[in-house]
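Note to self: keep these together.
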Amino acid sequence: MSSEPARPAPTADSPLPRRSLAVCALIGAALMAALDEVVFHQILHWHHFYDRSTRGVALLSDGLLHTAELLGLVAGFFLYADLRRRRALAPAHGVAGFLLGLGAFQLFDGIVDHKLLRLHQVRYGVDITGYDVAWNTGGLVLLLAGAALAVRAGRRDRDQGPDRDPYGNPDRPTA
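Structure:
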């Protein structure tokens, strides 16, 4: 038996900031994976997800990445729709989460996949230094923007107090 009181079920007009942030981060990461896969793997043909084997394995790895990104997008949008249906979406936290997801995927791909695991590089046959810098800087900028917006949204939540509208409308008290 837990000593913590049970949390009340969320009701209409009861935003869930953490869930909004997490759901939108999932959507952001899946969208960035989709952009990476479509642009760099399919359109430009610069690399596959796993380039250290045969062409067949490389294509299979792209298919698995595509499957994962689609599952992430579908799950994310179902969870997002549920937040909207319950009127529990915290929009500022959602935007922050979306940017965090975009940046987290980009940085993870650039640092872990490209450098630590060496699954693939951004591009082959050229000096990749500029590509690496641009790739990781872009991810860092997105991640920092998301973090700044998350902090700002959290401060705004604390400053509003319990008798203010959770969506920021000063004319509509919650009680």
